[in-house]
Amino acid sequence: MHTGTAAVPAEKAGGEWTGPWRLGLSGLATLAVTYGFGRYGYGLFLPRFQAEFGGSAGVLGAVTSIGYLGELIALVVVGWWAGRRSPRLPIGVGLGCAGAGMLMIAAAPNMGVLVAGVALSGMAPGWVWTPYSDVVEDTVQPTKRAHALSLISTGTTFGVVLAGPAALFATGSGWRVVWLAAALAAFAVMAWNLRSLPSAPVTREQSPAPVRWLELARRRGAWPLFAAATSSGLVGAVYWSFAGVAVATANGGDERVAPALWTVIGIAGTIGVFTGRFVRQHGLRPIFVAAQVVLSASTAVLWLAPPGWGFALTSAVLYGIGFMVGGTLLSLWSSTVFPDHPTRGFSIVVVFITLGAAAGPAALGLVVDLAGLTTAFAIATLLALVTLAALPRRTRARSESTRPEDECGDRRHGDFDGSANSPVPPLR
After folding, report:
1. Which of 8, 58, 32, 50 is nearest to 324 (CA)?
2. Under 8 Å between Cβ of 31 and 157
3. 3-class secondary structure, 215
4. All structural domains of the chain with their residue ranges
């Protein structure tokens, strides 16, 4: 079993705190490659893969479930390595998986190799996201951690911004060049992280009692968080897997509309950078409700609206906002439930995200083949609305003008201020 850790003290021993940008930007690039392209780019290119290799939209969409299952394995290993190995190791392994998998996709001569490449690159997020939790906690100036983690979490949207135009101009077999370029980018970002991340394991002051995974899962407020994470994974995977096919089909097979959809999602999703600020100003619960309502509206548009570019792009704007703010919010929420074990606690959260993501394309892929795309988006909309019942505990909003010397809040109110001394410490 893992040995427990206490929160990092406000004064850093043995060195200076860093600002949010150095680690934030390398993490942003990592998630841009592994999530924004390696994970979600598959759905963008689904019509091209279908034309090249054959198969129904439902079956090809369900292929993504294989990558999510591989991610679960990676998460278990990362949780075991936390505090034992340098964060360079899992992040390097994840980016290596992304690069190798995307190379396989670029060179795929048949469906078997394509599926293997999707599975390998799909493992990458399980290796790379959660290790940044401990690195940020250990190296970033306490009052800047929320900013750093918002930057990292929003990497997905910047990857999507690049994937959309790339797909738009990759006509014919040009999609292979796009995936080759993405693979090379993954290896370049891997070299960047190996150079910039700490070479030693992230360690903290030891607590007297060992920590068991079940004890973490039983903490107050954990299960609403897990329910929201599962829903986020399922709804997100359905959207990324089938929205491109849905809008292309609704517009007479127009290949331009899906890349435009992805680009707009990415641009709208940059608002996720400000999630930490939103939470400080308004609290977790109001931002969670707002994000969930916007997310459900994005899938409702694809369910109810008539075909056309206007409705497709409206859905994209809503989804980019709801998905990126909601996804970043999960890491913030996790920090309030697992403040003393950021990587291990958030690893459990990501397991539930991944379980939902694995189930989504597989289950609703059958719905797509049997009842159509609109039925699948109807189910996703209703699920997003039901998730409103999984509310975070109330937190007291904190003004941006709060003085540093006043930032040590009252535990009874569950303050979130992004400082090491706060009862609700920094993220992840």
Report:
1. 32
2. no
3. helix
4. 20-201+217-397
Decide if 421 contacts 408 (C-beta within 8 A).
Answer: yes
How far apart, in whole angstroms, are the C-alpha atoms of residue 250 and residue 307? 5
Question: Token pair of 356, please?
Answer: 């939902």
Both tokens assigned to 78: 């990362």
Instruction: For residues 81-107, give the mean pLDDT.
Output: 89
Distance between CA atoms of residues 311 and 301, nearest Å = 7
Q: Are 161 and 44 in contact (CB under 8 A)?
A: no
Q: Which of 43, 54, 197, 194 is nearest to 121 (CA)?
A: 43
Q: Measured between alpha carbons, how far apart are the two ends of the chain, in Å?
A: 20
Q: What confidence tens digit (pLDDT) does each residue in 240-288 have?
A: 888 888 887 887 767 777 788 888 988 998 888 788 888 888 988 999 9
CB atoms within 10 A of CB 41: 28
Report d(CA 301, CA 264) in Å as an integer.
15
Distance separating alpha carbons of residues 375 and 325, to the nearest angstrom: 26
Q: Considering the entire predicted model, what is its pTM?
A: 0.73
Give the Cβ contact number of residue 203 at 10 Å: 12
DSSP letter assigned to residue 32: I
Count how many Cα atoms sit within 13 Å of the Cα of residue 276 in the half-sphere of its side chain.
24
| DSSP calls for 302-371 | HHHSPSSHHHHHHHHHHHHHHHHHHHHHHHHHHHHH-TT-HHHHHHHHHHHHHHHHHHHHHHHHHHHHHH
Instruction: Quick: pLDDT tens for 349-371.
Output: 888 988 898 888 778 878 888 88
Q: Please state, as a whole number, how many other Cβ atoms lie within 10 Å of the Cβ of residue 15.
A: 8
| Cβ pair 136, 145 in contact under 8 A | yes
Q: How far apart are CA 363 and CA 361, in angstroms?
A: 6
The CATH homologous superfamily to which domain 20-201+217-397 belongs is: MFS general substrate transporter like domains (1.20.1250.20)
User: What amino acid is encoded at 327 in this protein?
Assistant: G
- How is residue 208 annotated by DSSP? E
Report whether 275 contacts 331 (CB < 8 A): no
Q: Please state the separation of Cα 139 from the chain's center in Å.
A: 22
417 φ/ψ angles, rounded to the nearest 5 degrees: -130, 0
